[in-house]
Design a protein that fits this description.
The structure is a homohexamer. The first copy, chain A, is an alpha/beta fold. Chain A has ten helices and 16 strands.
Chain lengths: 287, 287, 287, 287, 287, 287
């Protein structure tokens, strides 16, 4: 394809996206592999060159586990959720806010952008309550997982302020409750809630698979577009694997207020740019 | 003294300070003792009630040492400065940004304010270079202390943005160099540089002594007011004890652009309010 | 009570009142006794130091009577209202606008504020019609008292303009009718109508008694708080004495649009400040 | 002259004057004769119809004398200036502010404009000092005339505020000194100083003669245009009669900052409009 | 009538019209006779002196016919409408936009105004469709007149922009269809539609007769004011002659949204000014 | 080259050009060949999609010659300049403003943009004087070419207004003199002067050759970049062929105030986009 064709294809997207907000969730490989992370951050900074306001939300489970182990603390999970006592919560904050978030902000700075790290404490950005019940199979049961929260509200003012002034916000998935306690919340869910609260143009979840697969073991079953209703049926049907589940739920939530959602392969170089500026698109789109 | 007298005394101060910025350095006892810290934060939040914009800068040396020890790492100091290798720097960031800063922001939120945690990475707030030389007695010698920095510039835009929108910024003393590396910087120095860059109305350093003492062992030798020139003479004379030295230097720096500086006793309840709103004043003033 | 307690008590009030408008009615002793008047004006000017916008309304009956007598004119009252022929109206204007109002504006200036005198003519601030009927006991009867008016409308734009630009407006209770004639109106009523039209935060009536007394002869029967409904019952019951009646009616009127009203003792030094900035409060509150 | 010629002649003046400020001094006949006053005020209100901002300054000597006499006080003059003791000053304020000024504001209102009465106390508009010396013939001598002032400064902010909001300010010639005392000042001088402080487009003094006459007894000696230098020579020469002197001095003062000044016959109907909107002009122009 | 009477009569009109928009249609004699055209343009420029925003719409039929003939092309009319093939349309554009419009803009410039020429292409100002049907007597029949259009919509943004910035827009009656083709539209209709879209204060049509005549051959039958309903009756009755018909229809259209319309004699000097600024008025008014 | 590489290459250009103004000169083939013209206009409209403000300037010599011939008028040239009598000037205006300009505005509209046609008359955009002297070889001689002008000043306000409101201005090279006469000016010169007056980011001249050739007959001698000094030397040396001469002079003029200039091949599809958004560049750049 000739250069001018690619440009003529891209320019209308650039116009369409100018001034819009996009929430980008970084997780998995993109956090673990230094080179991939740097590539993704480069693309995020490029987005601001064409007037897009990126909002980064990151995860960090493996890093938390690693520090816990170094401090001689055995991680414990119930229904896929990390049991979070006081000391674990302190470790979670140190890893997410003090380590992962700081690292992303540094990289943004290194590539010519201006980042600002945020947690749910900052401007009471993410309000949550303790999680009281989880679903196992068909049964919902009461649990006490310590400082594990479910999000109740987003106060997006602080993100809007930061974005308006030309900064790229980087958000750690830590929430605050009414009493000022910190709570551990899921990063995909956080990204979905923030995208919804901002009425973002897009939510883009970078992950380690090509997108939503009808059969997780067969890459040829990639679903390139799915409706909200169909996604809800899949979720209810219990056929979505556990890693994809919160991602798909986050998309359904955000799409319900008009956010266009994409689950794409963060391992593929520049998948972010290809998704945004070419007709082809990659991964799975949900709207 | 009657209520109305106290009010009539206070109202003109309130008018004078309305809309002004004050940098408040928290350290020592005020960080260690939970009740004292909560009292100080309550007063900080009250300041916003009367139109003052507080900017909090915190330290955290003992907390860093504690985590290093838990992780089996021996803290090492040269000329009072912490030798900071890669792993130590990671620990410093986790403790200052992920633990102490988050805790202060939580308390602000608990008492009705809206805080935002910042490090020198955020918006490239604090720019530093590696420290290459230290002074021991009369001799200046070359050193390599790892990621220990000296501040070269402050980009106060991010603080101004945060303050303008009604938030209380809480700053961790971590700087960034041109290559995007994090550096460990002194908290008192950071407070002084930020106060100068903001052309703050006041810099108030809360510490564990009543103020600057002519004889550190004799509380009756409190200096209630000192000029910049005299302070410089004391510093040169080598008679200022090591804990007070960076505080006094920070005041001299800030005062050189018109900031009125106070070193006051953070252990005394509400010393902040008494200093600001009564004719008496407490501690040592430098201008 | 310690200084810091008083301050901690006062600061939230200062925040609450910042930017709000308060109508202050001066009458009786506060107009007659020079020292008291000067004290009150000092406090009014202090209010602007903490961001409050005071609006002063004054009376002046005794001063009018004095000049009438000097000019050889016998004052005549019907149902407590001054019969006002052309010449009397001219005297009323000269005394209120040319003498009392000017005196208050001078004192504001002397104590560092900037006042502006206004009458109902200025910007057609107070619109009235001739009073046609008065109530004596249970009977309403037709009267012709000359240029005595009842207020029909307030055009608060001129006050808002003055306040927005940092001036303290001082209002004389003179109204204007559709034909441009001047009318003599009650000062308490004027204060109540202006407070209502401005949707002021508070209406504070300074008078010569401690507040509303259940038994006017017994100071121990002070009513510290009263509801609008109860006030209306008292008024209907005919048990309110004639001096207090227009004050109470003014409060009921203003309170009906959300103004919090206070009738306090203007003879007590700094009662204004104590009412506003302490938990205790003085006099009678109606809301 | 045909209607269209008059219009074509007038429209460029209307454009030229749009948005400009004009100080109009009312005195003599225009204050005494009700019909003339009403005609002048009608024209003043019309000026706002075409975007001109009129500022009215009035006199009132005869009215002051009348009230003094009614109150049994003998007016006394030295060098043409009214000796002003405390009681006289009180009478001056009552007459100028409470009577004449109020009357003009009422008439403005009656003819569809919105006036605001001002004295030198309002917003510290006119600052003066006690007059210490007067000139008699060639000799300057010390005097004590009581509360007679000479103007030291004008704070035009309050007039600008009023004008910006669409009101017509009406100014009484009363000044205030640093101690807050009221002082009696000359109305022509006041008009000239205000015109200068506002850098008005024009100063128009309405008087009882056709303009400046070379020979006061011979109307055919009207000077239709005079330079500042020539006016100064006339003043120095002592040939200007006493009523015209302060008018001419006021014009010289105002003209020195670029105000175009006119002394015109206030007894001639609509002389104001003819002066402003026709090529012919009336009276004497000084620039 | 005295000068001052004329001024007093005119000033309220000037106030009333200040800031308002007036659409002025130039046709017939005013386009053909150089001196008349220059007089009209002078008056149009004068209008801006008193804050009126004139919008000029022009015709140009005779000029088009002349160029067609020079190029050896025979003009053809059906039902009074010019049959417009491709070549004719090109000629229409050249004459209206390149010749007549440019000439008017030059004259505006010559007399101190700033004009901007516009056609319906500019900012898609005038949207039309091909005319498909015409009315002959009582019968409506299908026609194909080539590029003759009927107006479907006006996009007045470009006119508003031009007016807001102090320019006088001059509009040629050429429209554009959805496919970007140019269409020939009636100038009176265009003026009426633009006046309606702008919700102009007035539409003034300059023509070669004194106004609407009840009997076109009898000047004494001038109708000085007519209601919309009556105008509609005349139109339906078929008694309006063909030149007046589109003018009257344009007025009915514009009047339906509150525009006051005038058909006046463009041959009479300064009829525009007399209509606007005197009580008398000239020609026919419709509202 | 991969899609993502092309995008990564283009995005920084898009950022750099966002909000900037670019003057694009259309001439030669791009005006004659319908398909080429449409392609160029499509690209011009695309520029607005990425925040660039294009300003189009067009020529039209061959079209003028054609209409002159149809009207039986023999074109005459002196030193390459069209002798322009009154009738010729009228033809020039009709062709440029009424035909070529209208056609470009229509095409912009057809492709989704909003154009506005302008000539030098509009808002007195282009001020010129009659050309009095021309250079032939080394000799400068006096001439009278009729209405041929040389540009004296540009009033860019009207272009700025149009651009600010989102329109694409299309400018015909017709100027106006102080007396309001129209003058025929060179289109390349006009483009250069307008680019300079606007301090445009770029001036791009589309022509029928690949750029500036060292030897006009040898395409391999294309100069891809040239300094202003070198360009001046070429011009002085008399080796630039007559068609390229005004283009090169226009570039030198514009470059002297910082405009980056490009002479590119308008026959090559999308040369505009390739020049702007790829590292390669096409044609000749002068800065």
């Amino acid at each position: 394809m000739s250069r001018e064709k690619i440009l003529i294809e891209a320019l209308p997207y650039i116009r369409e996206f100018y001034g819009s907000t996009m929430v980008i969730k970084l997780g998995g490989h993109a956090l673990v592999d230094e080179a991939t992370m740097e590539d993704v951050i480069k693309d995020v900074v490029l987005l601001r060159f064409v007037g897009i306001n990126p909002v980064v939300v990151h995860g960090g489970g493996p890093e938390i586990t690693r520090l816990m182990e170094r401090l001689g603390k055995q991680p414990k999970f119930v229904a896929g959720l990390r049991v979070t006592d006081d000391e674990t919560m302190e470790i979670v904050r140190m890893v997410l806010v003090g380590s992962v978030n700081e690292r992303i902000v540094s990289l943004i700075s290194k590539h010519g952008g201006k980042g600002i790290g945020l947690s749910g404490n900052d401007g009471r950005l993410i309000i949550a309550e303790k999680l009281r019940r989880v679903r196992r199979g068909d049964v919902e049961e009461e649990v006490d997982l310590g400082w594990v929260g479910e999000i109740k509200a987003i106060n997006p003012e602080v993100i809007k302020m930061v974005v308006t002034h030309g900064y790229i916000p980087v958000v750690s998935p830590i929430a605050v409750d009414e009493q000022g306690n910190s709570l551990n919340v899921n990063a995909d869910t956080t990204a979905g809630e923030i995208a919804a609260a901002l009425k973002a143009k897009k939510l883009i979840i970078l992950t380690d698979v090509p997108g939503l697969l009808r059969d997780p073991r067969d890459l040829s079953t990639l679903i390139s577009e799915i409706s909200r209703d169909e996604a809800r049926r899949l979720i209810k049907g219990g056929v979505v694997e556990s890693g994809m589940l919160p991602k798909l739920e986050a998309c359904v939530k955000a799409a319900s207020v008009g956010v266009v959602c994409h689950i794409i392969d963060g391992r593929k170089p520049h998948s972010l740019l290809l998704e945004l500026f070419t007709d082809a698109g990659v991964g799975t789109m949900l709207r």
